[in-house]
Amino acid sequence: MKKWIIPILIxxxxxxxxxxxxQYREKQAVLVQAENNYQRAFHELTxxxxxxxEKIGSALAMNSRASLSPQLxxxxxxTSEARADVGQLPLSLLPFNKTEEFLFDIGDFAxxxxxxxxxxxxLSEEEVKRLEQLFKQSKEIKTNLREVQNVVLNDHLRWMxxxxxxxxxxxxxxxxxxxxxxxxxxxxxxxxxIVENDLDDEFSYITGEEVSEERAKEIGAKWLGDEEDxxxxxxxxxxKLHTFTVxxxxxxxxxxxxxxxxxxxxxxxxxxxxxxxPELSLYQGGEKAAAYLEDLxxxxxxxxxxxxxxxxxxxxxxxxxxxxxxxxxxxxxxxxLDDGEMLGLTALEYMKNHGEDGMEAPAxxxxxxxxxxxxxxxxxxxxxxxxxxxxxxxxxxxxxxGRRGDQTYRIxxxxxxxxxxxxxxxxxxxxxxxxxS
Amino acid sequence: xxLLLSALMSTSxxxxxxxxxxQGAVGEDVIELQARLKHVGYYTGEVDGIFxxxxxxxxxxxQYEFGMEVDGLVGPDMKARLERVSTYDPGKYKNRGQNAxxxxxxxxxxxxxxxxxxxxxxxxxxxxEPYEGQVAVASVILxxxxxxAFPNSISGVIFEPRAxxxxxxxxxxxxxxxxxxxxxxxxxxxxxxxxxxxYYFNPNTATxxxxxxxxxxxxxxxxxxxx
Lengths: 437, 227
Description:
Chain A: One of its GO terms (biological process) is spore germination. By secondary structure, chain A is of the alpha+beta class. Chain A folds into three domains: 192 residues, no CATH class; 141 residues, no CATH class; 60 residues, Nuclear Transport Factor 2, Chain: A, CATH 3.10.450. Helices cover 45% and strands 22% of the residues of chain A. In chain A, α3 packs across α6. By secondary structure, chain B is mostly helical. Chain B contains ten helices and three strands, in the order αααααααααβαββ. In chain B, α5 packs across α9 and α6 packs across α9. The N and C termini of chain B lie far apart (64 Å). At the A-B interface, α3, α5, β2, β3 and β4 of A face α3, α6, α9, α10 and β2 of B.
């Protein structure tokens, strides 16, 4: 009897050791692979920043459009590669936004400079100044990153450790983290000079008397139900627009509404519940949505888009004045198609953009604008519209909806100078690849 | 040709409901509309039960040819004319558009796969949260896609290392429920309960000092949302 036990134990021990060793090896392989991915992203990043610095440097010495345009396009490409690498590093818990924004800014600048018409002058004085500054900045980032890289290589630092440290806030070798913080502060130092689209007047059209919490609750009660079920919370200090949020939560339903403290305007509304079989068509839902908006005193709005998602209809309304559609002043309404209840409203874009400042009369006429449209597009519908251009400014446009083959396009031609502001390919129906849900 | 057709074919049984059909609609009525328009040669696309641009132009062409008001809306008059000139065999299109009223149409610019991926992230991150808390997480993903400081794609944002705990611990691969999907669609349609936040954290478990230093906008459920 006894003599059996020992061989069995030995076999068992061997088997377990073998299994354990294999587990360990597999885990090591996975860890090494993950680490290698980080390493590649990091070393690639330093390389691209090097390259960027060099490319900007040579761009400064170029004087002809023939060489400058491709160079700027190249810079744009390199920034996008560098950004892709940043996105693969575990830096989310580290302040590294400024550097990412810096990369974005260079890309943006290079792109705009590359595509603009440089017939007269390759780069304006201002652009050269900007480029010089970007050159200096990229050089500092480059130097800092190279230093970190040097330490990483010499001391065999692992990004996996950095990741762990960041996640747990545990002290350890901080070389990498500190290095990136230095890079970040380098960029931060230039912050003022970078053109920031910091719109302090973003909500300047939202006006009126301050409302109390009680008043917010009253406003909410009309759409959300009994006041005693509602709770009101206030937005926190950091919010750009201060709001009261009125909400209710029950077992099988819930909802909330954002009301601006200034003026008590409804900005957002959302309710959720089980929705029964549709009794209303999308069209009838749209009539309901229009009635709700009238009730809420949104005058002169028109439906520009309707879509059905399962048992709800979602409608996009825009402000309309003198036959011009203001796509900038948009409101969306969601209606349950079982009983027509309003389940959602978002009027933030409308509240942000809706001012009394009218647009100037178009400088070119419809026919002229039409001639600017690609000849292969068969124009089927026309409107006047106001949209935001790339700089975020409101521009008056002729809007043409047309077809090329079986694809539908929406084309905006600037009514002032005939420029093609925007060409949108209208969505075709989404193919379903699975039968899930 | 239409005269011939209408003379030859006896009117088939109509399945049209009494409702006006318009662009953006989905379901049985749209399937019948598309099938009938296709039968008479006005519509060349797929009979999928989703009233998109192709169907819209087909309806307008039909209205124009038959001397009706060209508005792209399918009312009783249009239905009656359509029934007179075309036939419809419901059996042929039985399994189109994923059973009546449940066809997938997706918000402009996003595919069903994008929605699936986001629903996974939302479910993994916020399945215990109130509905608006789930929409809020989807909004943060979209706000990051728009932000210069983050990757430019939904997948880039979701899989950024350490960006979302559900990605780090694998909970993102749980099967999301219908509610998470609805939350994603609401966010894609423009609802943003967060006030344009690009970060959020759970104040009970957040260990990073830096995250506490961000300007806070508001709290929804367990999460604090910030810029």
